[in-house]
């Protein structure tokens, strides 16, 4: 009798005892990093499906319920997922969420700076080295005040670029920032550390488990990174064109030779003038491959390469086919590097 009561008591308590933290994630790459730390100790609920793009996503009522019921929401940031900003505010989840772009230590790339350098590289270099600021106020304004007349302002600008004080994320100002931070192994480590801290706070009973998973992730990341760097070294001088300008973190990390992009933003289709420019770039730079993306129709790339011998292959920046487990992020990096390698070899 007592044994039966004891069994019933355990059963009654078990749903509460086994309750896991609910971590809502925005996109697949975020889920990959989160899964590396949670293991089987938390419930991950992803909002944007693995076959969709966050660039043109619209929330459903079920997604709003996920946000309301979440213990924490982990997302990239408003410059990629603007559809999440208001719901997080309405659900009073801003403080408990983890915004990747806002984390201290994340290295961010700015689209505006890249395009200024691409359009007028020599003038940009001259401006950076110029010491006579008074004669170049107008030029400084055009270059977004990269060299400030006030030395203290210049120091503040450097701090902003280094993101040393970025954790506060005052004003949510990420205008011009490349949001594809998951393509940098270094940035993935920063998110993993932040997720670990949050899980330790939410589920202190499993603190040592989460911290152990972080240590494994950091070690595995170093090994994977070294393997990829070695394999891509043989093709890093081969020019190629990507579908949209979203691979800079990966390209700069591994020293690849990006020669251009079909479109700056995937929701913008290139016009006839852009297509003509791309065909000229393909010939001028001896481009070996033009990449498409599985989230978007490959018809644009096919028409661009019509009549040419240039290779084409898909690049999946979201890892849609990667199975979600603790090693998913490593598999994602290896798959992406393999896609580069096969088309550039």
UniProtKB/TrEMBL annotation:
Keywords: Disulfide bond, Ion transport, Metal-binding, Periplasm, Signal, Transport, Zinc, Zinc transport. InterPro entries: Bact_metal-bind_prot9 (IPR050492), ZnuA (IPR035520), ZnuA-like (IPR006127). Residues 116-159 have a biased composition (Acidic residues). Belongs to the bacterial solute-binding protein 9 family. Residues 114-180 are annotated as: Disordered. Pfam families: ZnuA (PF01297). Residues 160-178 have a biased composition (Basic and acidic residues). This is High-affinity zinc uptake system protein ZnuA. It is found in: Periplasm. Its main location: periplasm. Residues 1-19 form the signal peptide. Gene3D superfamilies: Nitrogenase molybdenum iron protein domain (3.40.50.1980). Part of the ATP-binding cassette (ABC) transport system ZnuABC involved in zinc import. Binds zinc with high affinity and specificity and delivers it to the membrane permease for translocation into the cytoplasm. SUPFAM superfamilies: Helical backbone' metal receptor.
